[in-house]
Amino acid sequence: MSKYQIRGGNRLHGTIEISGAKNAAVAIIPAALLVDGVCRIENIPQISDVTLILQILRELGADVRTVNRTTVDVDCSHIRNRQVPYELARKIRASYYLVGALLGRFGWTEVPLPGGCDLGGRPVDQHIKGFVAMGADVEVRSGLICAQVPGRGRLAGGQIYLDMVSVGATMNIMLAATLANGMTIIENAAKEPHIVDLANFLNSMGANIMGAGTDVIKIRGVSRLRGGTYSIIPDQIEAGTYMAAVAAAGGEVLIKNVIPKHLDCITAKLVEMGVDVEEQDDAVLVRRDGPLRRVNVKTMPYPGFPTDMQPQIAAVLCLARGTSVLTEGVWDSRYRYVDEFRRMGARIQVDGKVAVIEGVGCLTGAPIHACDLRAGAAMVIAGLSAQGVTEIDAIYHIERGYETLVEKLSGVGADIRLISYPEDESQPQVG
Ligand code: EPZ
Predict the structure, then answer these.
(1) For ligand 1, what atom is nearest to the CA of residue 301?
(2) pTM of the full predicted structure?
(3) Out of 39, 117, 265, 318, which one is annotated catalytic?
C-alpha cells in the first residue's frame, strides 16, 4: 500500500509536459492485433493500464519490444491464442477492445467481461449490438463475452445506430469493421479526440475509415493492414487535471505537449471561473491570482465538458465564491469521492446526478481514500490547495492513468511525496 502525502498551500510555477493519451493508447495497442507486420507506437504513456494491455497482448502471442521509454514495437503476426486471460482482463475496462480486434481478425474470441473504475452500471450491450449487426453470434456466459462469426470467417459490414453516445462501443465497432467484408456505418457515434486518433492509426496502417470526429462514421472493410509508425495524441484529461490543479493552488504553469483545441471545453469553464488561460501552438499557459467564481457545469460527450474532469472541477469549485451546481450527464454514479472531500471541510450535497457545491474558500488536509482514477486525481488537487497535510491512499487507482504525477507536480513546486510501504507495512519508505 503506497500513499501520496501532500502539504498544501504552495503555489505552482513552471512547466509540465503532458504524456500520451491513456484512452487512445488502450484502444490503439489492441488495434495492433488487426495488423500484419510491426506497428511502432510512439508517445505511449507509462501508466499501469498500458502495462496491463501490453501484457495481455504478450499472453496472446504478440511480440512486444520496448524501443524507448515511450515507444514500443508490436508484432501480432503470430498470435496463437484468441482467449484472453481472466486475471488480466478483469482489471481493466479497455479489455473490451480485444473483442472487436480479435473478432475482426480471426472470426472468434472469448474475452472476460471488463473491469475498470466503479462508476455505476457499465453495460456493453451497444458493443454487442454492433457485432451482431455485422453477423457475429455473441453471448455472455461464465463471465466471458463469447463472440464468433459462423464458420469463423470475416464479419460483414452492417449499419448500427447507437442508442446512446458510447466511446467504447464506437471504437470497438470500428475495430471489428476494419477487416470486415463491405461497409459499416455507425450512427450517433462518439466524437472524442481518441476516436479520431484510433481512426488515424488504423488509416495509417491501410484501413478506410471516414467521418471519425463526426456522429456518422463509415468504415469500408479492407483485406489486410500493414505495419507502420504512429504517435499517440497528448492526453486531454491529464492536461485538464493539471489546469485544474493550477486553478486550485494558484500560480502560473505552462502545460506543454497538448492540442489546445481538445482543451476548449475545459478552458471555457476555467476562464468563466476567473482563471487566465493563454493558448499557444502546442501548449497552454494557465495562471490564477485572484478569487475563483462559482459556475454551473454539466458533463456531456465531446465536445461537451468531459465526465473524466468532473471530480477535478468539483475540487476547484469547493474553493470558489458562491454555490455551484454540477450535473453528471454520462455516468449513474460518479460522486463517491464526495464523502472524502467532506473530511476536508467541503460542503457538497448530492441528489442523484446533481451535486450542489457551496464554496468554502479553503479546505483542510485530512487522510482520504482514492476511490477511483479521476476521483483520486481530484483529491490530489484538493490536497494541493488545502491547509495542512493530506494523505491519499489506494493510489494504484491514480497510477492507472497518470504518468509520474509526483515528479510532474514536484517540478512545479508542489510539496507532494510518494510514501511506499514494504511488504509488512511497518516501515514506510519515502520517495
Ligand atoms: C470511456 O468509457 C472511458 N474509458 C471513460 O474514462 C469515460 O468516462 C467514458 O468513455 C466517457 O467519456 C476508456 O476509454 C477506457 P461509454 P466507456 O461507453 O467507453 C452507457 C477514465 O477515467 N453505455 O462512452 O466505457 C454507459 O453506461 C474512464 O479514464 C451503455 O449503456 O464509456 C454510460 O452511461 C472512466 N451501453 C454511457 O453509455 C453500452 O454498451 C457512456 O459510456 C456502452 C455504454
Answers:
(1) 12
(2) 0.96
(3) 117
In 29-80, DSSP assigns E strands to 35-42, 63-68, 71-75
Within the chain, how many helices (H) and strands (E) appear?
Answer: 14, 24
One pLDDT digit (tens) per residue for the chain, 431 residues:
899 999 999 999 999 999 999 999 999 999 999 999 999 999 999 999 999 999 999 999 999 999 999 999 999 998 888 888 888 888 888 889 999 999 999 999 999 887 666 666 678 999 999 999 999 999 988 888 999 999 888 999 999 999 999 999 999 999 999 999 999 999 999 999 999 999 999 999 999 999 999 999 999 999 999 999 999 999 999 999 999 999 999 999 999 999 999 999 999 999 999 999 999 999 999 999 999 999 999 999 999 999 999 999 999 999 999 999 999 999 987 999 999 999 999 999 999 999 999 999 899 999 999 999 999 999 999 999 999 999 999 999 999 999 999 999 999 999 999 998 776 554 544 44
373 C-beta closer than 6 A to ligand 1? yes
Q: 29, 47, 122: which to mutate for ligand 1, most atoms within 8 A of CB?
A: 122
Distance of alpha carbon 63 from alpha carbon 78, whole angstroms: 8
Grid coordinates representing 199? 481512426
CA distance 73 to 71: 7
Burial grade of 41 (CB within 10 A; 0-12, 13-18, 19 or more): buried
Q: Can you read off the three cell numbers belonging to residue 322?
A: 458562491
Q: Which atom of ligand 1 is nearest to the CA of 307?
A: 8
